[in-house]
Amino acid sequence: MNDVFPVHGMDAVVFAVGNAKQAAHYYSTAFGMRLAAYRGPETGSPDEVAYVLTSGAARFELRGSVRPGTWLARHVADHGDGVIDLALDVPDVEAAYRHALEQGARGLAEPHVMEDEHGKIVVAAIAAYGETRHTLIDRSNYNGPYLPGYVAAEPIVAAPDVRNGRFFQAVDHCVGNVEQMDEWVEFYERVMGFTKMAEFIGDDIATEYSALMSKVVADGTRKVKFPLNEPAVGKKKSQIEEYLEFYGGPGVQHIALATNDILATVDHMRKAGVEFLDTPDSYYDDPALRARIGEVRVPVEELKSRRILVDRDEDGYLLQIFTKPVVDRPTVFFELIERHGSLGFGKGNFKALFEAIEREQARRGTL
Ligand SMILES: [Fe+2]
Q: How far does the centroid of ligand 1 lie from the alpha carbon of residue 254, in Å?
């Protein structure tokens, strides 16, 4: 089938934060990321600073306002630290943008060229849920540290002492919390030609355990995967409702990071102070779990001691774990995921996972 909106993959996850200097330190020390590029008042950017960090193919940009009254300062005041842009690497920005607008997307930036001594990039942007945007970028004719206007920067700390010197290698998927899931599923189908993946959480699971409904859309190559959640009427207050309330509307809930050694990564990140959701002993001691997951690469005891979850489907299995929110508000968090064939998102873990989340909500008094 003709791909109406080809994408190469994720280009960057862009965060608006209250203190980008300290956030860059956090993602360096706790997530093992390497500072690669910077812009700020010293480099001709009078209103804001931006730190660009990488870990393998994953790239985060952390933007902070250096003065009051800017769009960025207002965004942080409204939403707290959060994701403002899920930037996509596309082969033809002009065609992608034109297709998106023809299909009803709202344009935020017309295609334009930016250049410096490292070459040129083509960039445009369209609006997604809430105040989130998708920048569309073609950097195939550019070899600078990030974008024109940014200068190369040295890592903040030494590389972590793990295989390949990094805790994770790529962004696996980016999850949005929205009010109307189907509206946004339809948006990605129509505007980007994305298709639904098999996994979804319907009202069967929703009512009892998760209080959310979820569907996943992805591009034709399955490199870009966007699960979308909406609150469901459950027995308890939905965690999605809590997010929408505290974030002040729809936004990115979590970013899943693909790792090839989740055990070592979790050990290092815990040691660096990252908090992960707890999972009850009963999850691991349940004979049904052992029957469900079959053989995985390490004994269940190794997973249990780290609170790593495991799920299996017809294609294989996956190991995953979720951090607690990494910002002040109960909004944005991360997932680590190690895939062994499975293309799923851990549906089988929803019950155990949401019971754990509910314990955290109860501690905050927002259940
Ligand atoms: Fe996830």
A: 7
Pairing of strands 333-340, 251-258: parallel
Residue 103 carries which side chain, given as an amino acid letter?
Q
* Separation of CA 151 and ligand 1 centre (Å): 33
Q: Is 57 exposed, middle or buried (0-12, 13-18, 19+ CB in 10 A)?
A: middle
Residue closest to 229 by CA, chosen among 345, 311, 341: 345
Rounded to whole angstroms, the Cα distance separating 367 from 349 reads 20
Does residue 211 share a domain with residue 100? Answer: no
Distance from the alpha carbon of residue 18 to the mean position of ligand 1, in angstroms: 25
Please tell me whether residue 168 adopts helix, strand or coil conformation.
coil
Ligand 1 center to 109 CA (angstroms): 29
Q: Is residue 2 situated within a structural domain?
A: no
Which residue range(s) make up the domain with 211? 163-364
Close Cβ partners of 63 (under 8 Å, ≥ 6 residues apart): 14, 15, 16, 17, 20, 48, 49, 50, 72, 84
Q: DSSP readout, 347-363?
A: GGGHHHHHHHHHHHHHH
- Please tell me the predicted confidence (pLDDT) of residue 208: 66
Residue 158 lies in a domain: no
Å from CA of 277 to ligand 1 middle = 13
Tally of structural domains, the chain? 2
Q: How far is the CA of 48 from the centre of ligand 1 (A)?
A: 31
What pLDDT score does 204 carry?
65
Which parts of the chain sit beneath pLDDT 70? 1-2, 203-210, 235, 351-357
Listed residues 111, 131, 152: the one ending a domain: 152
In angstroms, rounded to a whole number, what is the distance separating the alpha carbons of residues 282 and 14? 38
Tokens 């002009």 sit on residue: 94
DSSP string of 38-70, one letter each residue = EESGGGT-SSEEEEEEEETTEEEEEEEESSTTS
Query: What is the whole-number distance in angstroms between the Cα of residue 236 and the centre of ligand 1?
Result: 21
Cα–Cα dist 219/217, whole Å = 7
The confidence score (pLDDT) of residue 308 equals 96
In one-letter notation, the amino acid at residue 196 is K
- What is the reported pLDDT for 199? 80
pLDDT reported for residue 135: 98
